[in-house]
Amino acid sequence: MNIVKICAILIVSILVFSGITELSTSSGAETWVSEVPNATSYRISHLTATISVTVKNTNDHVQYFKMSQVYQGSLSEESTINWIIAGTKPTAVKMVKSRSPELGGDYGWPIKAGETKTVCFQLNAIGRMGGIPTYIAKEDPDESNYWPLINEPGLMGSWFQPNELEILNPSLDIKKWKGTFTFRLTNFDDQKVYGIVRAPVVPTNSKLVYSSPKAFVDTKTAVNTNIAAWNVIMSPGASRTFRYTYVYPISSSSSSSVAKTPSLCCPKSSAASSAKSVPSKETGVPYGLFIVGALVTVAGIGYARFMR
């Protein structure tokens, strides 16, 4: 057999294998058809995140890590979520550089050589999903017209890596991570509306240990991601609050006892709940509120694009 025939056989084999692979990976995937965003009935607002994380410094000198106030995850670059600080424990300190000065600057914690430190911080979304109700649309939906029936998958969620700090600095080891999220869902339609609503922010490779109302888990929308989802029926103008908790790694979730109470590790202080807790040109950054998290940063952008 000459070299030309061998090459031809190899090319055909590759094409056949690629076709089989494509069929096997797409046959079970749900198609998300496009929608008119302004006509979507359900919108999310008042999104909050309370995160507790245990970090070990394996380096031989002191290091720092800080909170991130801009979330992207699997969202597009134009759809990020901005956050302000509502509380920290222990008290965070001002960092030497600022990534989000318009949100009050960057705050975090020192960690000594060999030290294992647990910190907790609470963030409140501002703008989109904060005071401005919105929802997450599927990236690159199918624009084709199907007839006479099409599916309705509901509202999309987003996801991120809870251990991104390890990717950014391999000397900082994430031992445990726990995140509790809350949001308000409102029906802006003048009719009763039915549909599936997915959690707006979800950590990958993590376990859902608490949800209220009780959620089901969507494991097919994103790889290695257990997305909390609810079958929601709401009357015109109605609102409902949702709460859910994830732990990472999955092995850190022991029994069902962890799912009984979402326990917030850093409740709002008097300073955090005051009007001055929102940084501005007039107020600056109050010392009672410090935020900055490296859990969602540049590494997440590349990961999110891959996951999409």
Note down, in words, how this protein is organized.
By secondary structure, the protein is α+β, with helices and mostly antiparallel strands. It is globular, with a radius of gyration of 22 Å. Residues 16-27, 255-259 and 269-308 have low confidence and may be disordered. The chain has a seven-stranded antiparallel beta sheet. 14% of the residues lie in helices and 33% in strands. The longest helix has 24 residues, at 3-26. It has a domain at 45-138 and 160-184 and 243-307. It is built from four helices and 15 strands.
Element layout with pairings:
Elements: H1 3-26, E1 42-57, E2 63-66, E3 70-71, E4 81-89, E5 93-94, E6 107-111, E7 116-126, E8 159-160, H2 164-168, E9 172-187, E10 193-198, E11 202-203, E12 207-212, E13 216-218, E14 227-234, E15 239-248, H3 257-260, H4 298-307
Parallel strand pairs: 8-11
Antiparallel strand pairs: 1-7, 1-9, 2-6, 3-4, 4-7, 5-6, 9-15, 10-14, 12-15, 13-14
